[in-house]
Description:
By secondary structure, chain A is mostly helical. Chain A folds into two domains: about 1-75; about 85-155, no CATH class. Chain A has helices spanning about 5-25, 40-65, 65-70, 75-100, 100-115, 120-145, 150-155; strands spanning about 1-5, 35, 35-40, 75. The longest helix of chain A has 24 residues, at about 5-25. Chain B has helices spanning about 1-15, 20-35, 40-55, 60-85, 90-105, 105-140, 145-160, 165-180, 205-225, 240-250, 255-270, 275-285, 300-315, 315-325, 330-340, 350, 355-385, 390-410, 415-430, 435-460, 470-490, 495-500; strands at about 185, 190-195. Helices cover about 75% and strands about 0% of the residues of chain B. By secondary structure, chain B is mainly alpha-helical. Chain B has one domain. The interface between A and B is large, with 78 and 72 residues. Chain B: It comes from Teichococcus oryzae.
Amino acid sequence: xxxxxxxxxxxxxxxxxxxxxxxxxxxxxxxxxxxxxxxxxxxxxxxxxxxxxxxxxxxxxxxxxxxxxxxxxxxxxxxxxxxxxxxxxxxxxxxxxxxxxxxxxxxxxxxxxxxxxxxxxxxxxxxxxxxxxxxxxxxxxxxxxxxxxxxxxxxxxxxx
Amino acid sequence: xxxxxxxxxxxxxxxxxxxxxxxxxxxxxxxxxxxxxxxxxxxxxxxxxxxxxxxxxxxxxxxxxxxxxxxxxxxxxxxxxxxxxxxxxxxxxxxxxxxxxxxxxxxxxxxxxxxxxxxxxxxxxxxxxxxxxxxxxxxxxxxxxxxxxxxxxxxxxxxxxxxxxxxxxxxxxxxxxxxxxxxxxxxxxxxxxxxxxxxxxxxxxxxxxxxxxxxxxxxxxxxxxxxxxxxxxxxxxxxxxxxxxxxxxxxxxxxxxxxxxxxxxxxxxxxxxxxxxxxxxxxxxxxxxxxxxxxxxxxxxxxxxxxxxxxxxxxxxxxxxxxxxxxxxxxxxxxxxxxxxxxxxxxxxxxxxxxxxxxxxxxxxxxxxxxxxxxxxxxxxxxxxxxxxxxxxxxxxxxxxxxxxxxxxxxxxxxxxxxxxxxxxxxxxxxxxxxxxxxxxxxxxxxxxxxxxxxxxxxxxxxxxxxxxxxxxxxxxxxxxxxxxxxxxxxxxxxxxxxxxxxxxxxxxxxxx
Lengths: 160, 513
């Protein structure tokens, strides 16, 4: 069970981490105010500092109110399961897209998600997957000539 | 001014031919299509049509291209309202109240409000162009880096200061936005910032990818968590709901006028439609009688950004023609077109090419009326998409988001960014972090920093240059007052910061209803 308290702390930690990374990155630049005004690192350095301070403050406030925040449930187990069930295939889509291209990845993604998660019959899943992919190809690739990520299949078919 | 009206009448005789009206209809329809698709925008549409215009005469060519632009501006609002995915950057602010309305089953109403107020804003913008074309051109010439910075600062301050939500969390959101906006090549010094040796980060993090993640994917995750179906969104097509909404429009006359004023101002001082829509939403939220309802599906929250967006879009044509300053990517492509057609943008254009300039201005009146009619006609089509089961439309929206994220820069890496920001968006909504300041900081922060540092370059590091003339001095002072307002209010004990910052029910107006 995920409580508000844990999520508050977790997100504050993430912001703190982003701030620390920003601080490291900008300290390598000139972060002073030179004769010609603020240098490249001036604003990044200060933004990172404020970010760290604000994240720490959120953490402290969460800790001060921990009794109340522990009682607030952010996501129920079945809701969280649905989120993961929906989110993980998206990650799968991105992974597949990196080496098979966006068209193949989206067709596979649509087919799999509509068939198994939506529990739709095969012909619906196949129809939507092929239909959306083909329409996307026609609109982007042919009509507006905006090339999308392509993989070995498109090259094999002579479309890449 | 009377001379301008004469010129306009002449313009109508140029623009009102069957051929030109046909071009307007075609351009608007194509524009709606590219506007609706998040991966495509007005720049793509204009680029696609540009080769076709080489054989046309310049008036017909500009009528086709500008009509396409209006269509794209209208179409961008559709997906903002129905799916929380802004089809165009300038439609981001429309999602704040448009999407909650759609979720309450008031999609038709929200779309009608959006399109009619957009049309109204566009008309105001054109009327201003008609009346002030010569005077405004010389005003825009005064704009240097300090003035640019002042305009951005004011847009920024008016949005942030008027926003609700916990102050600490707003600061976190702002810093995240500024931080992400700074990644990449620094345009002033040319050095790499915060790229950590990653080639993918050299061109920076596009705010469009962030928007697609935070709003599009993040919202899908929240929707699926609550249940497998769209909650309350009705796909029923009801023409009577459209008429009822249209009949209620006059009630919001003040919001429309205010939004148009903000938009015209931001269009002429080339702040652009995106900044205009944010600023207008922020001011409406601060001054409206219904401010508690903002973010929960308040019609004024749709009307304010839409009027500003379109009046800025139309008013921005003026600096483009009279000064050759492209306020947007679309305008830049159109400028390229002007050169190819053998026209030189600049003040002389108004004198040497009267047929062209006034024909175009006249066509803007008609093009926007056609735009409103055509886009209203597409409402039933898009509203019907909501009645498709979420188990099918949800995954389709995911693929649309992915295609949109990829097309921003043609980079596979951006797909990962979109997914990461989807997760961040989900958590931010859960914890009542406001998203709008993050987006605004990304959009404006980068430009504001450039303008600020360019001003400092010319003044030798002295901030005094911001107050060196009345224009930038007034704007900057106003911006500082706006920014300080919440702190002053806080000092006066209007609310307890710590309590607001953390209590689970506070700051809900920023999130979904």
